[in-house]
């Protein structure tokens, strides 16, 4: 059996085992993915143990996406440019290579909803690993501008500087507070809003990072939070007449990309979606 793991801290929220194991079973593959909680101070030891662990790949979630890239022996050029990884392949000799399917997953989720980043003005909430990947892909796909809105503005400014260097995007990226006049002005001129923070995630499902009054018809709103399926942000977006894209879509598309890297297969997206929705229905 080929064994895989999703690592993060904590891991109670992860739906990766349900998605991947349903896919493996549907394709008749002798594979399994398990959740392995790894605390922040334990990542180095865990990565050093991979060669003897029998694991053939990792799905990586909060808070390890930046650190795991530095722990791998090599990196796919896209992951290296982004500066974060959510996927690791482990060779037969224990060699590790980092990849990022968050970027392609976000792009596919937007595309599936009929939304193009080319020429668009975008606001991205958050400045973590997922936000980094999403912003990099938006700029690579020709977004006219990306405003990074974060509670800690210096962190957003650091990400802005990284993106300008990595994407040759000087003048196309700005850092703004996550609330107040600067944020409101950025959102008023935007065509796409993406929440790349955990705000709204269960058990704090009633929260939204954006006041309802700022949402409007003509805006496309994507939330990377997938539990609950309908976040407060998405419910408010629908009520305002905006296009609402649930976090399940990016999650499924990035998982599809992971199986392509690990196994060279085209995963059964419908099977994965059914498994995810079933697991979410059982989730507290």
What's the oligomerization state?
A: single chain
Shape: globular
Spatial gap, N to C terminus: 31 Å
**Percent in helix:** 40-55%
In the predicted model, the low-confidence regions spanning at least 5 consecutive residues are none
Order of helices and strands: EHEHHEHEHEEHEHEHEHEEHEHH
Mean pLDDT figure: 96
For the CA atoms, what is the radius of gyration? Answer: 18 Å
Helical/strand content category: alpha/beta
Q: Which SSEs are present, and which pair or pack?
A:
Blueprint: E1 2-8, H1 16-26, E2 31-37, H2 43-48, H3 50-53, E3 55-60, H4 65-71, E4 74-75, H5 77-82, E5 87-90, E6 96-99, H6 102-112, E7 121-125, H7 129-140, E8 145-150, H8 153-167, E9 173-177, H9 181-188, E10 192-195, E11 220-223, H10 232-239, E12 243-245, H11 247-263, H12 269-282
Helix pairs in contact: 1-12, 6-7, 6-11, 7-8, 11-12
Key attributes of the depicted protein:
single chain; six-stranded mixed β-sheet; 284 residues; six-stranded parallel β-sheet
Brief overview:
With 284 residues, the protein is of the alpha/beta class. It has helices at 16-26, 43-48, 50-53, 65-71, 77-82, 102-112, 129-140, 153-167, 181-188, 232-239, 247-263, 269-282; strands at 2-8, 31-37, 55-60, 74-75, 87-90, 96-99, 121-125, 145-150, 173-177, 192-195, 220-223, 243-245. Helix 6 packs across helix 11 (247-263) and helix 7 runs parallel beside helix 8 (153-167).
